Amino acid sequence: MEASSAPVYQRILLKLSGEALMGEEAYGIDRAVASQIAAEVSEVHGLGVQVALVIGGGNIFRGLAAAAGGMDRATADYMGMLATVMNSLALQDALERLGVNTRVLTAIEMRAVAEPFIRRRAVRHLEKGRVIVLAAGTGNPYFTTDTAAALRAMEIRADVILKGTKVDGVYSADPMTHPDATRFDRISYLEFLDQGLRVMDATAISLCMDNRRTPGNLKRVVLGETVGTIVAVRERA
Asked: In this structure, what CATH number is given to the domain that contains residue 60?
């Protein structure tokens, strides 16, 4: 599909992994990377697109890994949720340095640093032209930030979920370890689940486009260019 001159989506939810903020670092937040992501979001926002963001916390703390090491799973997951709040505040800072009005809304109340997530308030922020960053996952342990992204997208009635990944689409297996893996341009929800693909967990599967974190990809997708893989109701339109 060729890109159009006007956005094909009016309201998007962008899901990023916490690791996306690390850049080449081994841990934490690379300010240059945060600034680059903010610049891309700002460009799309400037087209009149309403933007919501959900970011993971794996660059700071991974609840599942801590639980595997013996920590109580619920405690580990709550710590991971707090890591997503730190990342969300970093993105808010990067966006506001570019002049983009941004609000962080969190599923775990911490009024000194962010607003509590209230669906109607989130939608109102979008309608007023503000970018929203949705932090702390669903507010419940045992759910991933992929699930949080799918849930929040449904709640705010986003047109599409865009998930930035380290590969250029959905494959039949991990292309990093299986060079012969097949890349899908388009795949249905049921096929995604039947084949046990792992780009997003099963609970989180919704309308998604998975694309490499390549500069400019976000704008290209919003303008209608095919980038990565479309996961939709049917395999083909």
From this structure: 3.40.1160.10
